[in-house]
Amino acid sequence: MFCEHGFKLDDNGCKICECNVCSKQQCRMFCEHGFKVDEHGCEICECNTCPEVMCTMFCEHGFKLDDNGCEICECNVCSKQQCRMFCEHGFKVDEHGCEICECNTCPEVMCTMFCEHGSKLDDNGCEICECNVCSEQQCRMFCEHGFKVDENGCEICECNTCPEVMCTMFCEHGFKLDDNGCEICECNS
User: Which of 27-31, 34-38, 162-166 has the lowest mean pLDDT?
Assistant: First the structure.
């Protein structure tokens, strides 16, 4: 008999012909890379952390992911699309830079300058080779978690508010912070 999560033990600590059953965990948290498992293979209320990929190769389309969503030292390869359509401005790409069977609505911008607050858009919503300029806001207020930003990435005179972290785990060194300085349900190491 095979038991995915091991066998139950009797009062003497000996295995009996009965399988361990994982109890349904009620973890009020989101784990990007899934939950850790105990010695019986049952999920516990602790997030998997991905080890840093120690890889010296460059992958144009990013690295492949393992079962936990962690990067491994293998390159993603784009499959050859069999699109039977012509796209004046080329095809859209997915999060790995691989072409998908959808047309770009905007032409590719041939611009060599870096725009800290993004590029301006034309009447069709397509980027043009001009930078957005943020006016120097003089907000007479202090925001613990920084200021909100508008659609151009420019700060506005409104404070970021942090949602309350709904996390049932204890973190000895506190929680990690997101880009807005707000706690997220992940422990500092």
Answer: 162-166
